[in-house]
Amino acid sequence: MRAAGKSAAPTLAEERRLWAEGHRVVVGMDEVGRGAWAGPLTLVAAVLPQDRRVYGVRDSKMLSEAEREGLYDRIAEWCVAWAVGHATNEECDALGMSQAQRLAARRALDGLGVEADAVLVDGRWDFVGNGKSRALVKGDATCLSIAAASVLAKVTRDRLMRAAAVDHPDYAFDSNKGYLCPRHRAALVARGPTPLHRRSWAFMDNLGWSHLRVAPGPQVSLRF
């Protein structure tokens, strides 16, 4: 594990407090893809067991891609329940990012198969807002269920974007995962957006492709 990942391991302190208060099903949630230019916004809801641990779990940003992939199956098997919720790039455009995040969160919670008694989310904004949720600043670094959700979300979305790179090789989705990089920008300027791009974002306005047709490729490259 990289040095950044060794310094501070997330704990079950928040989950234990909620368990002690009688909240049996405590869900950790995290998202990935909010700042991407292409691809879905992806959220994961994860429920951890009270009596077993998987060591080495960190905020996904503190881990290398190989480390995240190595942890993915272990975390998935460890969870009592977990589920993914996506908001497509079209939904991000139509709804705006805040409402798209709420939609993806609702889909993830609905997919769990269990009713959440309490929900812990990363950040300052409670994007669940169901009266059972609490936002934790730097929760992905300090709260174990959120950290587990962050790894599952990141690996899930990265795999989708690597698959999309097969259909759209010029955009380097396999390496940039839909985020900004010089090759991604150059492909947008030269070829225009793919069906996976978020076309309403303000930073797209000055890239010079408004006169171009959508770059060829399958209309639906990602399967959720």
The Cα radius of gyration reads 18 Å
CATH superfamily of the largest domain: Ribonuclease H-like superfamily/Ribonuclease H
**Fold-level CATH name of the largest domain:** Nucleotidyltransferase, domain 5
Helical/strand content category: alpha/beta
How many separate domains make up the residues? Answer: 2
Question: What is the CATH-assigned architecture of the largest domain?
Answer: 2-Layer Sandwich
**Shape category:** globular
Characterize the biggest β-sheet: 5 strands, mixed
Q: Tell me, what is the CATH class of the largest domain?
A: Alpha Beta
The ordered H/E elements are HHEEHEHHEEHHHH
Helix content: 40-55%
Major beta sheet, strand line-up: 3-2-1-4-5
Low-confidence stretches: 210-214, 216-221
The average pLDDT score comes to 89
Number of helices: 9
Number of strands: 5
Tell me the strand percentage band: 5-15%
Question: What attributes does this structure have?
Answer:
2 domains, five-stranded mixed sheet, 40% helix, 9 helices, alpha/beta, Nucleotidyltransferase, domain 5, 224 residues
Folded structure, characterized:
With 224 residues, the chain is an alpha/beta fold. It has two domains: 160 residues, Ribonuclease H-like superfamily/Ribonuclease H (Nucleotidyltransferase, domain 5); 38 residues, no CATH class. Helices cover 40% and strands 13% of the residues. A five-stranded mixed β-sheet has the order 3-2-1-4-5. Helix 3 crosses helix 7 and helix 4 crosses helix 5. The chain is globular, with a radius of gyration of 18 Å. The two termini are 30 Å apart.
